[in-house]
Every structure is written in C-alpha cells, then in structure tokens.
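SEQUENCE, STRUCTURE TOKENS:
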Amino acid sequence: MPAQPTDASAAGVIPLGGDLQVRRLGFGAMRITGDGIWGPPADPEGAKAVLRRAIELGVNFIDTASSYGPGVSEELIAEALHPYPGGLVIATKGGLKRSGPGEWERDCSPEHLREACEGSLRRLRLERIDVYQLHAVDPKVPLEESVGALSDLREEGKIAHVGLSNIDTDQLERARRIVPVVSVQNRYGLTDRDSEPVLERCEREGLAFIPWFPLAAGDLSEEGPIPRVAQAHGATPYQVALAWLLARSEVMLPIPGTSSLEHLEENVAAARLGLSDEEVEELSGADA
C-alpha cells in the first residue's frame, strides 16, 4: 500500500491578524480555471475534487481572486466547499480586470474595488471575506485611494482583514498608515528573490508573506543543488522548493496551486520534508 500524503499541519501555523490562525501551507486556486486563467476548467468536477481533497489534507487557507476566470475560481470554491468547514480561511483579491485569456489590466479605482469585493462576496457565498487583498498597484490611481477603499470596506464589515500583493516596502508602509495590513503576496521562490526586502520587512512586523509562483525551482540539472537535495530525500525538486520556503522564514505562507490531485498530494507532502541547516544554506546560495 502506498504511503499516505502527510497533512498540511506539519508545516506549522501562522496568525493572520488577531483572530485567524492558518497552516503555513495553503492552496492557490488560480489554476483550477481554464487555459490562460480564463473561463471554466475542462473538468469542473475534477477541480472541485482537488479543492475538497485539499481540505481533507489539512489545508485551511485558500487564496483566489475575482480575476481568476474571471469569477470562475471563486464560484468553484463555493460549489465545492460551501457550507465552509470551521477554521477555513478564504483570501481573495481585487484590482485586476480581464479582457481575454492571458490578458490582465489593472483597475484599482475605489469604484472597481468595491464592485469586485461585492462580486466576490456573492460568488463565495460569504457575508464577510476573511482576507481581501489589493491585487496590484495601479499607476493611474493613487495608492492611498485604493487602500482607502479597502479600509472603507473593512469598516463596513465586508472584509475582516486587508492584504497587499505585488508591492514594495515603500508602498507597504504607505498602506499601513491607512489600514492594518496582515499579509503581503509577492512573487518569490528559491531562485526568484527580488522581494527579499519585502519579506524581511514582513518578518520584522509580523506580517504573513505569501509567495506566489512558489514552485519556481530554476536549474533542475543533475549538477545543481536542488536535484541533489531532492535525491537525498527521495523527493521532487518542487517539494524541495516548498520545503526551502517553509524553512526560510516563520512568516512564509506558500500557496502552491494545481488542478491535479497527484500534484496536490505531492505538494502537501512537502510540509514534512525536513531540510538540514546545511541543506538550507546550500540551497539559499543557489543562483537566483
């Protein structure tokens, strides 16, 4: 009988604000949509099976966005999981509009953010969103106006906590002058560390850092440190990439996404992949 995948609880927990605790290995629900993150998936029932299996494996943090589909990811989450199990935290995002497959347009005007948030509430069948994130900074709209809109939605009780995505340290501090921020979601991985200053600021301030595209593993040649460490543990390079993220910082909250049950179980199993201090140091020295 094959070994059962380990539970996400092996990754430990991280607080989001003063009232939420989530396991440090979440699920990113972008890839349960169609090609180009557009329209429904080819196998909607398979997508819903992945969401249900994630919960069975102990995942209690799901990240999505109104722009994934658009709307499709949120609808599938509700169809698969509502009424939601206790302790499940759903984070979604607003600020991007879609005109077609692979097309993304920023619109962080207060009017659009309010419309996006209310649409997410309907699709997710929620009265209040646990964590609502600004998906990106819109160069056409002052950041203070965008964040101010999220602050208003928070005061109205439509969102519990505010997060930010794709920002730098200056933008983070400007936003925090307006509203409490519980998380930052930036692109970050073993070989993609441009957001290191933001991660370090999150560590100092006790904010969750949610790396998107966490499975970017770079050079997978047999000579590199990633496959060498993977072989030593009988793991895949992508499991090593996830294990390194979890070891890199206590505020790290990876959200690997997939539409495959097999890959989901493989990702969750990385929660118990213990890297030695020497392995973490070697991997940290890999070319970014």
